Amino acid sequence: MTVNPKISPPSNRRWIVTSIPYLWMLVFFLVPFFIVLKISFSSSEIAQPPYAPAFDFMTDTWNDTLEKLLTLTSDNYSRLFQDSIYFSSYLSSLWIAGSSTVMMLFIAYPIAYAMARAPKSWRPTLVMMVVLPFWTSFLIRIYAWIAILSEEGLLNTLLTSLGIIDEPIQILSTNTAVYIGILYSYLPFMVLPLYSTLEKMDESLIESAKDLGCTSIGAFWRITAPLSIPGVIAGCFLVFIPAVGEFVIPDLLGGSETIMIGKTMWEEFFNNRDWPAASGVAIALLLLLMIPIMIFQSNEARQQEAGQ
Amino acid sequence: MRRLSIFNVVSLTIGFVFLYLPIILLVIYSFNAGRSVAVWGGWSTKWYSSVFENQQLLAASWVTLKVGVLSASVATVLGTLSALALARFGRFKGRTLFSAMVYAPLVMPEVITGLSLLLLFVSLNIDRGFWTIVLSHITFTMCFVAVVVQSRLSSFDRSIEEAALDLGCTPFMTFFRITLPIILPAVISGWMLAFTLSLDDFVIASFTTGPGATTLPMKIYSDVRLGIKPEINAICSLMIAVVTVTVMIASVMTKRQEVERERAERLAVAGR
User: Fold this and answer.
1) Labelling B223: which of A126, A203, A214, B117 has CA 20 to 30 A away?
2) Residue B100's domain spans which residues?
3) Chain B partners within 8 Å of A25 (Cβ)
4) Is the residue at B136 inside a domain?
Protein backbone atom coordinates (compact mmCIF):
# COMPACT_ATOMS: atom_id res chain seq x y z
CA MET A 1 0.00 0.00 0.00
CA THR A 2 1.37 3.41 -0.90
CA VAL A 3 1.25 6.30 1.41
CA ASN A 4 -0.89 9.13 0.15
CA PRO A 5 1.56 11.88 -0.81
CA LYS A 6 -0.95 14.60 -0.10
CA ILE A 7 -0.72 13.92 3.59
CA SER A 8 1.73 16.03 5.47
CA PRO A 9 3.96 14.41 8.07
CA PRO A 10 2.21 13.94 11.41
CA SER A 11 4.34 16.52 13.18
CA ASN A 12 2.70 19.30 11.17
CA ARG A 13 -0.79 18.30 12.20
CA ARG A 14 0.33 17.87 15.75
CA TRP A 15 1.53 21.42 15.75
CA ILE A 16 -1.97 22.57 14.76
CA VAL A 17 -3.71 20.38 17.35
CA THR A 18 -1.53 21.70 20.14
CA SER A 19 -1.41 25.32 19.14
CA ILE A 20 -5.17 26.00 19.28
CA PRO A 21 -5.72 25.18 22.97
CA TYR A 22 -2.23 26.49 23.74
CA LEU A 23 -2.98 29.91 22.29
CA TRP A 24 -6.37 29.94 23.98
CA MET A 25 -4.85 29.31 27.40
CA LEU A 26 -2.09 31.86 26.80
CA VAL A 27 -4.60 34.58 25.90
CA PHE A 28 -7.32 33.77 28.43
CA PHE A 29 -5.32 32.39 31.32
CA LEU A 30 -1.71 33.51 31.38
CA VAL A 31 -1.97 37.02 29.94
CA PRO A 32 -4.80 37.99 32.36
CA PHE A 33 -2.49 37.21 35.27
CA PHE A 34 0.09 39.64 34.05
CA ILE A 35 -2.65 42.22 33.66
CA VAL A 36 -3.73 41.61 37.26
CA LEU A 37 -0.11 41.93 38.32
CA LYS A 38 0.26 45.16 36.36
CA ILE A 39 -2.91 46.71 37.75
CA SER A 40 -2.01 45.70 41.28
CA PHE A 41 0.88 48.15 41.00
CA SER A 42 -1.21 51.04 39.74
CA SER A 43 -3.16 53.52 41.81
CA SER A 44 -6.88 53.79 42.17
CA GLU A 45 -8.80 56.54 40.40
CA ILE A 46 -12.37 57.62 39.99
CA ALA A 47 -12.66 56.94 36.29
CA GLN A 48 -13.73 54.31 33.82
CA PRO A 49 -11.92 51.89 34.23
CA PRO A 50 -11.15 52.99 37.79
CA TYR A 51 -7.38 52.88 37.85
CA ALA A 52 -4.45 54.88 36.57
CA PRO A 53 -2.23 52.52 34.65
CA ALA A 54 1.32 52.26 35.90
CA PHE A 55 2.60 51.40 32.44
CA ASP A 56 1.44 52.30 29.01
CA PHE A 57 3.28 50.13 26.55
CA MET A 58 1.73 51.86 23.57
CA THR A 59 3.17 55.31 24.19
CA ASP A 60 5.98 54.83 26.68
CA THR A 61 9.54 54.49 25.55
CA TRP A 62 11.85 52.00 27.16
CA ASN A 63 13.32 54.72 29.35
CA ASP A 64 9.91 55.81 30.59
CA THR A 65 9.05 52.25 31.50
CA LEU A 66 12.34 51.80 33.30
CA GLU A 67 11.87 55.00 35.23
CA LYS A 68 8.37 53.98 36.21
CA LEU A 69 9.61 50.57 37.32
CA LEU A 70 11.90 52.30 39.78
CA THR A 71 9.18 54.49 41.23
CA LEU A 72 6.55 51.77 41.05
CA THR A 73 3.72 52.15 43.48
CA SER A 74 3.70 49.22 45.80
CA ASP A 75 1.11 50.97 47.93
CA ASN A 76 -1.39 48.21 47.35
CA TYR A 77 1.04 45.68 48.76
CA SER A 78 2.21 47.65 51.76
CA ARG A 79 -1.46 48.20 52.50
CA LEU A 80 -1.89 44.44 52.59
CA PHE A 81 0.26 44.39 55.69
CA GLN A 82 -0.65 47.71 57.24
CA ASP A 83 -4.38 47.64 56.79
CA SER A 84 -5.58 45.24 59.43
CA ILE A 85 -8.64 44.18 57.43
CA TYR A 86 -6.45 42.48 54.80
CA PHE A 87 -4.13 40.83 57.22
CA SER A 88 -6.87 39.54 59.47
CA SER A 89 -8.87 38.27 56.51
CA TYR A 90 -5.85 36.26 55.34
CA LEU A 91 -5.38 34.81 58.79
CA SER A 92 -9.04 34.07 59.30
CA SER A 93 -9.37 32.48 55.82
CA LEU A 94 -6.44 30.22 56.60
CA TRP A 95 -7.88 29.40 60.01
CA ILE A 96 -11.41 28.69 58.78
CA ALA A 97 -10.20 26.65 55.80
CA GLY A 98 -7.64 24.76 57.90
CA SER A 99 -9.91 23.88 60.78
CA SER A 100 -12.77 22.86 58.53
CA THR A 101 -10.35 20.63 56.61
CA VAL A 102 -9.40 18.85 59.84
CA MET A 103 -13.07 18.48 60.87
CA MET A 104 -13.86 17.21 57.40
CA LEU A 105 -11.20 14.52 57.71
CA PHE A 106 -12.90 13.15 60.82
CA ILE A 107 -16.34 13.23 59.19
CA ALA A 108 -15.28 11.83 55.82
CA TYR A 109 -12.97 9.06 56.98
CA PRO A 110 -15.66 6.82 58.54
CA ILE A 111 -17.87 7.32 55.47
CA ALA A 112 -15.08 6.47 53.02
CA TYR A 113 -14.02 3.53 55.19
CA ALA A 114 -17.55 2.12 55.27
CA MET A 115 -17.85 2.59 51.49
CA ALA A 116 -14.61 0.69 50.91
CA ARG A 117 -15.77 -2.16 53.15
CA ALA A 118 -19.21 -2.40 51.56
CA PRO A 119 -19.93 -5.34 49.25
CA LYS A 120 -18.35 -4.82 45.82
CA SER A 121 -21.68 -4.63 44.04
CA TRP A 122 -22.83 -1.70 46.19
CA ARG A 123 -19.73 0.41 45.72
CA PRO A 124 -20.52 2.11 42.37
CA THR A 125 -23.95 3.08 43.71
CA LEU A 126 -22.44 4.46 46.92
CA VAL A 127 -19.89 6.49 44.94
CA MET A 128 -22.65 7.85 42.74
CA MET A 129 -24.71 8.79 45.79
CA VAL A 130 -21.77 10.79 47.15
CA VAL A 131 -21.23 12.55 43.81
CA LEU A 132 -24.86 13.25 42.94
CA PRO A 133 -25.40 16.28 45.25
CA PHE A 134 -22.20 17.75 43.77
CA TRP A 135 -23.96 17.99 40.40
CA THR A 136 -26.68 20.22 41.75
CA SER A 137 -25.82 23.87 41.90
CA PHE A 138 -23.49 25.06 44.60
CA LEU A 139 -25.69 28.10 45.18
CA ILE A 140 -28.77 25.91 45.65
CA ARG A 141 -27.05 23.79 48.27
CA ILE A 142 -26.01 26.88 50.20
CA TYR A 143 -29.51 28.31 49.83
CA ALA A 144 -30.98 25.10 51.29
CA TRP A 145 -28.94 25.69 54.44
CA ILE A 146 -30.22 29.26 54.80
CA ALA A 147 -33.75 27.86 55.07
CA ILE A 148 -32.59 25.42 57.75
CA LEU A 149 -30.38 27.70 59.84
CA SER A 150 -32.18 31.04 59.80
CA GLU A 151 -33.87 32.35 62.92
CA GLU A 152 -37.35 31.36 61.80
CA GLY A 153 -35.85 28.37 59.96
CA LEU A 154 -36.49 24.67 60.27
CA LEU A 155 -33.86 23.89 62.89
CA ASN A 156 -34.95 26.63 65.27
CA THR A 157 -38.63 25.77 64.79
CA LEU A 158 -37.90 22.13 65.51
CA LEU A 159 -35.82 22.86 68.60
CA THR A 160 -38.34 25.31 70.09
CA SER A 161 -41.29 23.02 69.44
CA LEU A 162 -39.42 20.19 71.16
CA GLY A 163 -38.81 22.50 74.09
CA ILE A 164 -35.03 22.19 73.91
CA ILE A 165 -34.59 25.94 73.53
CA ASP A 166 -36.90 28.77 74.52
CA GLU A 167 -35.72 31.36 72.06
CA PRO A 168 -34.38 30.85 68.57
CA ILE A 169 -30.59 30.71 68.53
CA GLN A 170 -28.69 32.60 65.90
CA ILE A 171 -26.75 30.24 63.67
CA LEU A 172 -27.09 31.92 60.30
CA SER A 173 -24.72 34.88 59.89
CA THR A 174 -22.16 33.36 62.23
CA ASN A 175 -18.94 31.48 61.64
CA THR A 176 -20.69 28.25 62.67
CA ALA A 177 -22.88 28.51 59.58
CA VAL A 178 -19.76 29.06 57.45
CA TYR A 179 -18.21 25.88 58.86
CA ILE A 180 -21.41 23.94 58.18
CA GLY A 181 -21.50 25.31 54.63
CA ILE A 182 -17.88 24.34 53.91
CA LEU A 183 -18.28 20.89 55.47
CA TYR A 184 -21.41 20.29 53.44
CA SER A 185 -20.18 21.60 50.09
CA TYR A 186 -16.77 19.97 50.06
CA LEU A 187 -17.59 16.59 51.61
CA PRO A 188 -17.33 14.67 48.30
CA PHE A 189 -13.86 16.15 47.69
CA MET A 190 -12.63 14.49 50.87
CA VAL A 191 -14.62 11.24 50.69
CA LEU A 192 -13.66 10.27 47.14
CA PRO A 193 -9.83 10.39 47.38
CA LEU A 194 -9.98 8.61 50.75
CA TYR A 195 -12.28 5.97 49.31
CA SER A 196 -10.04 5.36 46.31
CA THR A 197 -6.96 4.68 48.47
CA LEU A 198 -8.89 2.61 51.02
CA GLU A 199 -10.56 0.56 48.30
CA LYS A 200 -7.22 -0.41 46.73
CA MET A 201 -5.87 -1.64 50.04
CA ASP A 202 -5.11 -5.33 50.42
CA GLU A 203 -7.54 -6.89 52.93
CA SER A 204 -5.16 -9.72 53.79
CA LEU A 205 -2.78 -7.25 55.46
CA ILE A 206 -5.34 -6.55 58.17
CA GLU A 207 -6.24 -10.21 58.55
CA SER A 208 -2.63 -11.20 59.04
CA ALA A 209 -2.14 -8.38 61.55
CA LYS A 210 -5.11 -9.72 63.50
CA ASP A 211 -3.77 -13.28 63.25
CA LEU A 212 -0.54 -12.03 64.75
CA GLY A 213 -2.43 -10.65 67.73
CA CYS A 214 -3.25 -7.09 66.76
CA THR A 215 -6.59 -5.72 67.92
CA SER A 216 -8.95 -4.19 65.35
CA ILE A 217 -8.06 -0.68 66.51
CA GLY A 218 -4.37 -1.50 66.56
CA ALA A 219 -4.57 -2.89 63.03
CA PHE A 220 -6.32 0.27 61.90
CA TRP A 221 -3.65 2.59 63.31
CA ARG A 222 -0.73 0.46 62.21
CA ILE A 223 -1.88 -0.56 58.75
CA THR A 224 -4.97 1.16 57.39
CA ALA A 225 -4.17 4.69 58.52
CA PRO A 226 -0.57 4.81 57.20
CA LEU A 227 -1.58 3.26 53.87
CA SER A 228 -4.31 5.85 53.36
CA ILE A 229 -1.95 8.83 53.73
CA PRO A 230 -1.88 9.71 49.99
CA GLY A 231 -5.68 9.87 49.99
CA VAL A 232 -5.62 12.02 53.13
CA ILE A 233 -3.18 14.46 51.52
CA ALA A 234 -5.17 14.66 48.27
CA GLY A 235 -8.46 15.13 50.11
CA CYS A 236 -7.11 17.77 52.50
CA PHE A 237 -5.73 19.91 49.70
CA LEU A 238 -8.84 19.49 47.55
CA VAL A 239 -10.82 20.92 50.46
CA PHE A 240 -8.32 23.45 51.77
CA ILE A 241 -7.32 25.19 48.52
CA PRO A 242 -10.81 26.16 47.29
CA ALA A 243 -12.02 26.84 50.85
CA VAL A 244 -9.39 29.56 51.37
CA GLY A 245 -10.63 31.58 48.41
CA GLU A 246 -14.32 30.86 49.02
CA PHE A 247 -16.71 33.73 48.43
CA VAL A 248 -20.29 32.45 48.26
CA ILE A 249 -20.29 30.57 51.59
CA PRO A 250 -18.97 33.40 53.83
CA ASP A 251 -21.12 35.89 51.96
CA LEU A 252 -24.44 34.06 52.23
CA LEU A 253 -24.01 32.07 55.44
CA GLY A 254 -21.54 34.21 57.35
CA GLY A 255 -22.13 37.48 59.12
CA SER A 256 -20.19 40.63 59.77
CA GLU A 257 -17.81 38.69 62.03
CA THR A 258 -16.85 36.47 59.12
CA ILE A 259 -13.99 37.95 57.18
CA MET A 260 -12.51 35.80 54.47
CA ILE A 261 -10.14 36.86 51.74
CA GLY A 262 -12.44 35.99 48.83
CA LYS A 263 -15.15 38.15 50.37
CA THR A 264 -12.73 41.02 51.08
CA MET A 265 -11.57 40.98 47.49
CA TRP A 266 -15.14 40.90 46.21
CA GLU A 267 -16.11 43.89 48.34
CA GLU A 268 -12.98 45.80 47.36
CA PHE A 269 -13.90 45.22 43.73
CA PHE A 270 -17.68 45.54 43.58
CA ASN A 271 -18.49 47.81 46.53
CA ASN A 272 -15.44 50.06 46.78
CA ARG A 273 -14.59 49.83 43.07
CA ASP A 274 -10.92 49.77 44.03
CA TRP A 275 -9.56 47.60 41.24
CA PRO A 276 -5.86 47.96 42.07
CA ALA A 277 -6.48 46.93 45.69
CA ALA A 278 -8.56 43.96 44.56
CA SER A 279 -5.75 42.95 42.19
CA GLY A 280 -3.21 43.21 44.99
CA VAL A 281 -5.36 40.98 47.19
CA ALA A 282 -5.73 38.50 44.31
CA ILE A 283 -1.97 38.29 43.73
CA ALA A 284 -1.33 37.83 47.44
CA LEU A 285 -3.97 35.09 47.61
CA LEU A 286 -2.32 33.38 44.66
CA LEU A 287 1.09 33.50 46.35
CA LEU A 288 -0.48 32.13 49.52
CA LEU A 289 -1.98 29.18 47.62
CA MET A 290 1.09 28.52 45.48
CA ILE A 291 2.75 26.27 48.05
CA PRO A 292 -0.31 24.11 48.85
CA ILE A 293 -1.05 23.78 45.12
CA MET A 294 2.51 22.64 44.45
CA ILE A 295 2.42 20.11 47.29
CA PHE A 296 -0.90 18.81 45.96
CA GLN A 297 0.40 18.44 42.41
CA SER A 298 3.57 16.63 43.42
CA ASN A 299 1.47 14.27 45.58
CA GLU A 300 -0.73 13.56 42.54
CA ALA A 301 2.28 12.97 40.30
CA ARG A 302 3.77 10.54 42.84
CA GLN A 303 0.46 8.71 43.03
CA GLN A 304 0.30 8.36 39.26
CA GLU A 305 3.82 7.02 39.07
CA ALA A 306 3.06 4.55 41.84
CA GLY A 307 -0.06 3.48 39.96
CA GLN A 308 1.86 2.76 36.77
CA MET B 1 -19.03 -11.90 51.96
CA ARG B 2 -17.95 -9.54 54.69
CA ARG B 3 -20.68 -7.88 56.72
CA LEU B 4 -20.63 -4.20 57.48
CA SER B 5 -20.22 -3.48 61.15
CA ILE B 6 -22.75 -1.36 63.04
CA PHE B 7 -20.21 1.47 63.05
CA ASN B 8 -19.94 1.35 59.24
CA VAL B 9 -23.69 1.34 58.75
CA VAL B 10 -24.17 4.24 61.17
CA SER B 11 -21.48 6.39 59.54
CA LEU B 12 -22.89 5.73 56.06
CA THR B 13 -26.40 6.58 57.23
CA ILE B 14 -25.38 9.80 58.96
CA GLY B 15 -23.24 10.78 55.99
CA PHE B 16 -26.03 10.34 53.46
CA VAL B 17 -28.63 12.01 55.67
CA PHE B 18 -26.27 14.99 55.99
CA LEU B 19 -25.79 15.08 52.20
CA TYR B 20 -29.41 14.67 51.18
CA LEU B 21 -31.60 16.11 53.93
CA PRO B 22 -31.11 19.81 53.01
CA ILE B 23 -31.90 19.13 49.35
CA ILE B 24 -34.95 16.99 50.18
CA LEU B 25 -36.28 19.65 52.55
CA LEU B 26 -35.78 22.30 49.88
CA VAL B 27 -37.79 20.27 47.36
CA ILE B 28 -40.56 19.49 49.88
CA TYR B 29 -40.91 23.13 50.90
CA SER B 30 -41.17 24.20 47.26
CA PHE B 31 -44.65 22.61 47.44
CA ASN B 32 -45.54 24.55 50.57
CA ALA B 33 -48.68 26.66 50.18
CA GLY B 34 -47.53 29.14 52.82
CA ARG B 35 -44.80 31.71 52.47
CA SER B 36 -42.82 30.53 55.47
CA VAL B 37 -39.78 28.30 55.18
CA ALA B 38 -40.56 26.43 58.38
CA VAL B 39 -44.32 26.34 58.84
CA TRP B 40 -46.17 23.89 56.66
CA GLY B 41 -49.27 25.38 55.05
CA GLY B 42 -50.44 22.48 52.92
CA TRP B 43 -49.50 21.23 49.46
CA SER B 44 -49.55 23.57 46.52
CA THR B 45 -47.88 24.00 43.16
CA LYS B 46 -48.50 27.72 42.98
CA TRP B 47 -44.81 28.61 43.27
CA TYR B 48 -44.11 26.58 40.17
CA SER B 49 -46.71 28.45 38.17
CA SER B 50 -45.36 31.75 39.46
CA VAL B 51 -41.89 30.71 38.23
CA PHE B 52 -43.29 30.28 34.76
CA GLU B 53 -44.91 33.70 34.95
CA ASN B 54 -41.74 35.42 36.15
CA GLN B 55 -40.27 36.90 32.98
CA GLN B 56 -36.95 37.82 34.60
CA LEU B 57 -36.38 34.28 35.85
CA LEU B 58 -37.29 32.81 32.48
CA ALA B 59 -34.99 35.23 30.65
CA ALA B 60 -32.13 34.41 33.04
CA SER B 61 -32.72 30.68 32.55
CA TRP B 62 -32.60 31.10 28.79
CA VAL B 63 -29.32 33.05 28.97
CA THR B 64 -27.83 30.41 31.29
CA LEU B 65 -28.87 27.59 28.97
CA LYS B 66 -27.40 29.30 25.91
CA VAL B 67 -24.13 30.09 27.72
CA GLY B 68 -23.96 26.49 28.96
CA VAL B 69 -24.52 24.80 25.59
CA LEU B 70 -22.20 27.15 23.68
CA SER B 71 -19.36 27.16 26.16
CA ALA B 72 -19.56 23.42 26.88
CA SER B 73 -19.40 22.61 23.16
CA VAL B 74 -16.37 24.79 22.45
CA ALA B 75 -14.73 23.69 25.71
CA THR B 76 -15.20 20.04 24.75
CA VAL B 77 -13.37 20.57 21.44
CA LEU B 78 -10.55 22.57 23.03
CA GLY B 79 -10.32 20.24 26.04
CA THR B 80 -10.14 17.15 23.81
CA LEU B 81 -7.38 18.77 21.74
CA SER B 82 -5.47 19.60 24.94
CA ALA B 83 -5.92 16.04 26.18
CA LEU B 84 -4.59 14.68 22.87
CA ALA B 85 -1.57 16.98 23.07
CA LEU B 86 -0.85 15.99 26.66
CA ALA B 87 -1.49 12.26 26.34
CA ARG B 88 -0.18 11.50 22.85
CA PHE B 89 2.48 13.93 21.71
CA GLY B 90 5.19 13.11 24.21
CA ARG B 91 7.54 15.95 25.07
CA PHE B 92 6.94 18.93 22.84
CA LYS B 93 8.29 22.42 23.23
CA GLY B 94 6.53 24.29 26.02
CA ARG B 95 4.76 21.20 27.35
CA THR B 96 5.47 22.07 30.99
CA LEU B 97 3.88 25.48 30.65
CA PHE B 98 0.96 23.98 28.76
CA SER B 99 0.19 21.31 31.35
CA ALA B 100 0.55 23.85 34.15
CA MET B 101 -1.95 26.12 32.39
CA VAL B 102 -4.37 23.22 31.90
CA TYR B 103 -4.20 22.01 35.49
CA ALA B 104 -4.02 25.33 37.32
CA PRO B 105 -7.63 26.46 36.73
CA LEU B 106 -8.87 23.27 38.41
CA VAL B 107 -7.75 24.54 41.81
CA MET B 108 -7.72 28.28 41.12
CA PRO B 109 -10.07 30.28 43.36
CA GLU B 110 -12.94 31.51 41.22
CA VAL B 111 -12.53 35.10 42.40
CA ILE B 112 -9.05 35.22 40.87
CA THR B 113 -10.12 33.68 37.55
CA GLY B 114 -13.07 36.05 37.38
CA LEU B 115 -11.07 39.17 38.19
CA SER B 116 -8.24 38.34 35.79
CA LEU B 117 -10.61 37.66 32.89
CA LEU B 118 -12.53 40.84 33.56
CA LEU B 119 -9.34 42.89 33.54
CA LEU B 120 -8.36 41.23 30.25
CA PHE B 121 -11.67 42.21 28.66
CA VAL B 122 -11.38 45.74 29.99
CA SER B 123 -7.85 46.22 28.70
CA LEU B 124 -8.84 44.83 25.29
CA ASN B 125 -11.85 47.16 25.26
CA ILE B 126 -14.30 44.32 24.68
CA ASP B 127 -17.92 45.12 25.54
CA ARG B 128 -18.91 42.90 28.40
CA GLY B 129 -22.04 40.79 28.28
CA PHE B 130 -23.19 37.43 26.96
CA TRP B 131 -20.10 36.69 24.88
CA THR B 132 -17.58 37.51 27.58
CA ILE B 133 -19.34 35.07 29.92
CA VAL B 134 -19.15 32.42 27.19
CA LEU B 135 -15.42 33.05 26.65
CA SER B 136 -14.72 32.85 30.39
CA HIS B 137 -16.73 29.67 30.81
CA ILE B 138 -14.93 28.03 27.89
CA THR B 139 -11.62 28.88 29.54
CA PHE B 140 -12.27 27.35 32.93
CA THR B 141 -14.39 24.36 31.84
CA MET B 142 -12.06 23.17 29.06
CA CYS B 143 -9.53 22.18 31.72
CA PHE B 144 -12.03 19.82 33.34
CA VAL B 145 -12.80 18.30 29.93
CA ALA B 146 -9.07 17.88 29.29
CA VAL B 147 -8.58 15.97 32.56
CA VAL B 148 -11.55 13.64 31.94
CA VAL B 149 -10.56 12.88 28.33
CA GLN B 150 -6.88 12.54 29.14
CA SER B 151 -7.53 9.84 31.73
CA ARG B 152 -9.47 7.85 29.12
CA LEU B 153 -6.74 8.38 26.49
CA SER B 154 -4.00 7.16 28.76
CA SER B 155 -5.89 3.99 29.68
CA PHE B 156 -6.62 2.58 26.23
CA ASP B 157 -4.65 0.29 24.02
CA ARG B 158 -2.58 2.41 21.65
CA SER B 159 -1.74 -0.52 19.40
CA ILE B 160 -5.14 -0.13 17.71
CA GLU B 161 -4.19 3.41 16.66
CA GLU B 162 -0.80 2.22 15.48
CA ALA B 163 -2.41 -0.60 13.51
CA ALA B 164 -4.70 1.87 11.76
CA LEU B 165 -1.72 4.08 10.88
CA ASP B 166 0.22 1.06 9.59
CA LEU B 167 -2.73 0.08 7.42
CA GLY B 168 -2.57 3.46 5.68
CA CYS B 169 -4.99 5.53 7.66
CA THR B 170 -4.02 9.17 7.92
CA PRO B 171 -3.57 10.50 11.48
CA PHE B 172 -6.67 12.60 10.86
CA MET B 173 -8.77 9.60 9.82
CA THR B 174 -7.33 7.47 12.60
CA PHE B 175 -8.55 10.01 15.08
CA PHE B 176 -12.09 10.08 13.72
CA ARG B 177 -12.41 6.36 13.01
CA ILE B 178 -10.53 4.80 15.91
CA THR B 179 -9.66 7.21 18.70
CA LEU B 180 -12.81 9.29 18.86
CA PRO B 181 -15.29 6.37 19.00
CA ILE B 182 -13.27 4.82 21.83
CA ILE B 183 -12.98 7.99 23.91
CA LEU B 184 -16.51 9.15 23.06
CA PRO B 185 -18.02 8.30 26.48
CA ALA B 186 -15.30 10.39 28.13
CA VAL B 187 -15.88 13.23 25.66
CA ILE B 188 -19.62 13.15 26.38
CA SER B 189 -19.13 13.12 30.13
CA GLY B 190 -16.61 15.94 29.67
CA TRP B 191 -19.29 17.95 27.86
CA MET B 192 -21.78 17.27 30.64
CA LEU B 193 -19.30 18.28 33.30
CA ALA B 194 -18.53 21.50 31.42
CA PHE B 195 -22.24 22.17 30.96
CA THR B 196 -23.11 21.72 34.64
CA LEU B 197 -20.08 23.76 35.74
CA SER B 198 -21.27 26.55 33.47
CA LEU B 199 -24.87 26.34 34.75
CA ASP B 200 -23.53 26.40 38.27
CA ASP B 201 -21.07 29.25 38.00
CA PHE B 202 -21.92 32.43 39.80
CA VAL B 203 -18.61 34.09 40.69
CA ILE B 204 -16.89 34.13 37.29
CA ALA B 205 -20.10 35.14 35.49
CA SER B 206 -20.62 38.05 37.90
CA PHE B 207 -17.17 39.40 37.15
CA THR B 208 -17.31 39.04 33.40
CA THR B 209 -20.91 40.01 32.69
CA GLY B 210 -22.11 43.34 31.42
CA PRO B 211 -25.42 45.11 31.17
CA GLY B 212 -28.21 42.92 29.85
CA ALA B 213 -26.72 39.52 30.55
CA THR B 214 -27.96 38.00 33.80
CA THR B 215 -27.54 34.28 34.36
CA LEU B 216 -29.79 32.21 36.58
CA PRO B 217 -27.26 31.85 39.44
CA MET B 218 -26.82 35.64 39.43
CA LYS B 219 -30.58 36.10 39.60
CA ILE B 220 -30.92 33.49 42.37
CA TYR B 221 -28.09 35.13 44.30
CA SER B 222 -29.64 38.58 44.21
CA ASP B 223 -33.03 37.14 45.23
CA VAL B 224 -31.47 35.16 48.08
CA ARG B 225 -29.78 38.31 49.36
CA LEU B 226 -33.21 39.91 49.63
CA GLY B 227 -34.51 36.99 51.65
CA ILE B 228 -36.00 33.55 51.24
CA LYS B 229 -38.71 33.28 48.62
CA PRO B 230 -40.68 30.10 47.93
CA GLU B 231 -40.32 30.85 44.23
CA ILE B 232 -36.60 30.24 44.51
CA ASN B 233 -37.34 26.87 46.11
CA ALA B 234 -39.41 26.01 43.05
CA ILE B 235 -36.80 27.04 40.48
CA CYS B 236 -34.09 25.25 42.48
CA SER B 237 -36.19 22.09 42.62
CA LEU B 238 -36.67 22.25 38.86
CA MET B 239 -32.92 22.56 38.36
CA ILE B 240 -32.30 19.65 40.73
CA ALA B 241 -34.80 17.54 38.79
CA VAL B 242 -33.14 18.34 35.44
CA VAL B 243 -29.65 17.57 36.74
CA THR B 244 -30.71 14.35 38.50
CA VAL B 245 -32.48 12.99 35.42
CA THR B 246 -29.50 13.90 33.18
CA VAL B 247 -26.98 12.25 35.49
CA MET B 248 -29.15 9.13 35.83
CA ILE B 249 -29.52 8.79 32.05
CA ALA B 250 -25.80 9.34 31.55
CA SER B 251 -24.81 6.74 34.12
CA VAL B 252 -27.22 4.17 32.67
CA MET B 253 -25.83 4.90 29.20
CA THR B 254 -22.19 4.51 30.21
CA LYS B 255 -23.04 1.32 32.09
CA ARG B 256 -24.77 -0.12 29.02
CA GLN B 257 -21.84 0.90 26.85
CA GLU B 258 -19.41 -0.76 29.21
CA VAL B 259 -21.40 -3.98 29.22
CA GLU B 260 -21.57 -3.86 25.43
CA ARG B 261 -17.84 -3.28 25.12
CA GLU B 262 -17.03 -6.12 27.47
CA ARG B 263 -19.27 -8.42 25.46
CA ALA B 264 -17.63 -7.33 22.22
CA GLU B 265 -14.20 -7.93 23.72
CA ARG B 266 -15.24 -11.40 24.90
CA LEU B 267 -16.61 -12.21 21.45
CA ALA B 268 -13.40 -10.98 19.82
CA VAL B 269 -11.31 -13.17 22.09
CA ALA B 270 -13.58 -16.17 21.53
CA GLY B 271 -13.54 -15.72 17.75
CA ARG B 272 -9.78 -15.78 17.62
Assistant:
1) B117
2) 54-212+242-271
3) 82, 98, 101-102, 139
4) yes
